[in-house]
Write a structure and sequence with these properties.
The chain contains four helices and nine strands, in the order E-H-H-H-H-E-E-E-E-E-E-E-E. The chain is of the alpha+beta class. The protein starts with a strand and ends with a strand.
């Protein structure tokens, strides 16, 4: 997978020019690292020059000039993309070489595969008297697709009741007032195997 990132659509015209200038100057200064760029640096320089001139001509919003500017922008972006492939090959995933060429390094995506981490910092807050409701909240985890909360009356050896919530906080209702319940929670990720938090207890008002 390529480690070079180039989001030309997210750049304004001036920003794209600045990026091209940076790549051009840095690669020209690192001839030992980048001995035979493809495309050659003069091609990048020519594309940059053409785009700069076209952008200047389009300043007064002439329709034909704007079309030419857009065309030259596309051509410059294409040269930068092709050159990024060369840099990526030379770098062989080494981010220092990518940076030496003036490009940005693609941020690696955190993997959320495998067993989910143990949920932590679970708290329970009873709501008003007679509501039979408890608000549960756990530490948020970015890899969680759902949060699986479980509850049961404390001291009774019965199966857990389960409530799935899309957020790290969840309201559990329909509970018996003035009874003590125990609660636990697990993240549900790519791997649906639960990994429950420590059990906590709270009275329901």
């Amino acid at each position: 997978m390529s480690q070079v990132t180039l989001n030309e659509r997210g750049h304004k015209d001036v920003e794209l020019m600045q990026m091209a200038e940076q790549v051009l100057s840095k690669m020209a200064a690192e001839t030992e690292l980048f001995a035979t760029p493809v495309p050659a640096l003069p091609i990048l320089e020519e594309a940059l020059h053409a785009f700069r001139n076209a952008a200047t001509e389009a300043y007064y919003r002439d329709t034909r000039a704007i079309l030419i500017r857009n065309q030259k922008r596309t051509e410059l972006a294409y040269v930068l993309k092709e050159l990024a492939k060369y840099v990526d090959t030379i770098a062989n995933t080494d981010p220092t070489i990518i940076l030496a060429a003036g490009y940005a390094v693609r941020k690696s995506k955190t993997s959320y595969g495998g067993v989910v981490p143990k949920a932590g910092q679970l708290i329970a807050r009873p709501e008003e008297v007679g509501s039979g409701r408890v608000k549960l909240k756990t530490q948020r985890w970015r890899g969680a697709r759902m949060y699986q909360y479980q509850f049961r009356i404390k001291g009774q050896n019965v199966d857990w009741n389960t409530r799935l919530c899309s957020k790290s906080s969840c309201i559990i209702d329909g509970l018996e007032s003035f009874r003590k319940y125990e609660f636990r929670v697990s993240y549900i990720g790519i791997d649906p195997t639960p990994n429950y938090s420590d059990i906590i207890s709270s009275y329901v008002l």
